Each structure stands twice: as structure tokens, then as C-alpha cells.
Amino acid sequence: MNPMQYPRFARPGLNPDMSRATASLHHARGSLATVERGARLYFAQDVQPLVLQACRAHGIGFDLFAARFNLPRSALVLVLKGHDPVSRQAQRAIEDFVLRGLSLSAGITPWQQAAAATAQDRL
């Protein structure tokens, strides 16, 4: 049967031991939390290790990732550590990149990743 015929939470054949992998996705989504100070948005904690892990999973270097945002590597490090502000668009792009990278390293299929994201949004 086509996997798109089932709701995200009731797909047949979902591996029960994948719950550990989806738990790491939930943890990663929470660890990319931001704090708004005045009119500026900052990462609440250091997210550089998660970005580096996602870069390894995607097979790209951190320099190439920084070039995507048109920033030098040192400036991106300050943003990821929460010292410099981040735009909402860049924050969403970083979050999506990290979640895709962690799902690649955990072996999660795209619809399982979507189910994890949807479940997190419902909370």
C-alpha cells in the first residue's frame, strides 16, 4: 500500500526501536530554542555541536555551510553560540538543516521525520 494513505501517526511498518531516534529529533528541536532580547533573536544555548554533527551527516564542511549564509566562519560561530543575533529566516534554515542531518544519521525516513515534527508542533 502507498504510505501516503495513512495518517502520519498510524503508518504500518514503523519500527518501534525508531522511537529512540525520534526522541533525539525532539531533543534537537528543543535545543535549537531561541530567546528574544528586545527586537533581536538569539539562540538560547550553544548549537554549534549539533550543526557540526549535521554537517558530517550531510557530508559538507562547516565553511561551506557558513558560505550558504554569506557569513565568515567566525561570525557564524558567534551566532551559533548565542552571542550574536540570528534572523528568523536563518534560524529556520539552521533548524531544518540540523533536523535533516540528524535524521540522516539516525536512518529515519522522511515521513517519520515529518511525523516527529508534527508531533512536536502539537505539544
How would you briefly describe this protein structure?
With 123 residues, this protein is mainly alpha-helical. The protein has helices at residues 19-31, 48-58, 62-68, 73-80, 88-106, 110-122, and strands at residues 34-37, 40-43. It has a single domain, classed as 434 Repressor (Amino-terminal Domain).
What attributes does this structure have?
single chain, 123 residues, mainly alpha, 434 Repressor (Amino-terminal Domain), two-stranded antiparallel ribbon, 6 helices, 2 strands, globular
Task: Give, in spatial order, the strands making up the sheet with the most strands.
Answer: 1-2
CATH class: Mainly Alpha
Compute the gyration radius: what is it? 16 Å
How far from one another are the termini? Answer: 30 Å
* Sheet of most strands: 2 strands, antiparallel
Shape: globular
Task: List the uncertain runs.
Answer: 8-28
The number of distinct β-strands equals 2
- Amount of beta strand: 5-15%
Q: What fraction, in percent, of the residue positions are helical? A: 55-70%
SSE order, one letter for each helix or strand: HEEHHHHH
Secondary structure category: mainly alpha
Mean of pLDDT: 76
Note the total helix count: 6
